[in-house]
Amino acid sequence: MIPAQFPPPVQADEFVMAPAAPPDGRIEVGVLFVGAGPASLAGAIRLAQLLETDAELKASLGEMPIVVVDKGKYPGAHLLSGAVLNPSGFKKLFPDTKMEELPFFGPVPGEKVYFLTENRSFALPILPPTMQNHGNYVASLSKVGKWMGEKAEELGVTLLNETAAYKLVVEGGAVRGIRVGDKGLDRDGKPMSNFEEGPEIHARFTVLGEGTQGHLTQAALSHFKIDRPAPQIYSLGVKEVWQVKKPLDRVIHTLGWPLRAGASFNEFGGSFCYPLGPDRVSIGLVVGLDYRDASLSVHDLFQRMKKHPLFAEVLAGGKREERGWGAKTIPEGGYWSLPQRLYAPGACFVGDAAGFVNVPTLKGIHYAMWSGIYAAEEIFKSLKAKTDPAAAGALAGYDQAVRSSFIGSDLYEVRNVRQAFRYGLYVGGAIAGLMTLTKGAFPGGQWETHADASYPMFDTGLEFPKADGGLTFDKLDSAFASGNRSRDNQPNHIRVDAQAPELLGKTWDRMCPAGVYEWHEKDGKKVLFVNSTNCIHCGAITAKGGRLTPPEGGSGPEYTLM
């Protein structure tokens, strides 16, 4: 059974529309950023800084020259990462701000990489060059998002929270803005007493920075026929924040157990544990979604992993934070999976929506921020030159800036590293080591990438022990700890083939960290039930055969420490 053989019920250009609202019924803005992640917020901040140098141009963009829309309740509500980050983007945007005034927990105090077996850990004697974090900082990405949102507002940027970008507005061959999703619909899509029709927001340029499974990014790439040289692939990360009894004195990364090393399982990933000040740690497990065992559950593997002596010692006597659990996908295809053009007429793609993640270094935040900065600088040039957004190559300078920058060169050097691990941990690790040492020159070429949903699934019958509620937790307890408060009777925003075979249903059931998919009995037959209000928008379903679309604005998790 191959997930890709059961595509979700999504029609071509379903999420693209021509302008429908009358001119006086539209919201007109200057430049629109979709998504309030590091890429969009960095871009909005940089553009605001540039507009301060040209009062006439700023005035020409109207009452709202820069707008950021996001479906979360506040900036950072849907942001989750490890996170150890390179601060270069912050230094660019805030050159006069001292490092201790930035929203970080502090510099990386030390680091170790371990190879794990089920009961033992072996520290690598030499840190791989890609895993060295001297000069980097530990942070909570949700706190970073909140801080950047505040800085953007101080510069006059308008933030529209609880605003789900549902459709692209396209006219004259160019993106002209978005149509916001409706609010107040019941489970059947019918208006209730509190119904609010989503407005059209029109802009001169639109920046799509929606994150890892960008809804409108997918729509734009399809509509404008922008291919990727290779399909994008993803991993799923599950993370918790714990209060602990003693400080963690180092950043920890691991490989090996609880994943299986054999090539037939296609299991790739590793774990992390980072200090968040003297009395907290963030701990998580990341697993590639090209795995083949339908019974594998990243959430439950993570719970099992916490019992390993290495982590049990760190967590001993501690307690998971009340708002201390989350999950998110990460784009892992790298250089070959970037869109052939990082722009469409009137729009450009930034951050995880484009796929700027360096898998060997576990870094993407500073790439995201710099892509937003480059987008802002190119849009500023285009606005000053009064360039028609529909003109051929109107934002080509953004594409050129990214590819000629350290983003392009960094990703090119590791262009085949993730792909090497299809040969398993040991052989793949040896090949990846050669690629790292030679900066991608040997073995060279373009290694083939297969979409996560293209692998045949099998079932080994993995079972996981019942959660104890102290060290380990089940999916429903964890989803509650994400702060998810989605309205129970809103329409289902998850598209899957309801006639999919049971093996695929089990894949989705086990894969989902929030317990969205369940088997129910109906007329003596098993029927897949989608409990969409549990969804925390991690995006895993899109990678493995379904499609996540935006729920009602304000739905989903409310991360604060993630």
Helix content: 10-25%
Beta-strand content: 15-25%
Q: How far apart, in Å, are the first and last alpha carbons?
A: 35 Å
Mean pLDDT, nearest integer?
96
Unreliable residue stretches: none
Give the second-level CATH assignment, the architecture: 3-Layer(bba) Sandwich
Counting copies of identical and different chains, the oligomeric state is single chain
CATH superfamily, by name, is FAD/NAD(P)-binding domain
Let me know the number of strands.
27
**CATH class division:** Alpha Beta
Helical stretch tally = 15
Give the overall form: globular
- Order of strands side by side in the largest beta sheet? 8-7-18-19-20-17-21
Q: Which secondary-structure class do the elements indicate?
A: alpha/beta
Short summary:
This protein is an alpha/beta fold and 562 residues long.
List the defining traits of the structure above.
FAD/NAD(P)-binding domain, 22% strand, 562 residues, 15 helices, alpha/beta, globular
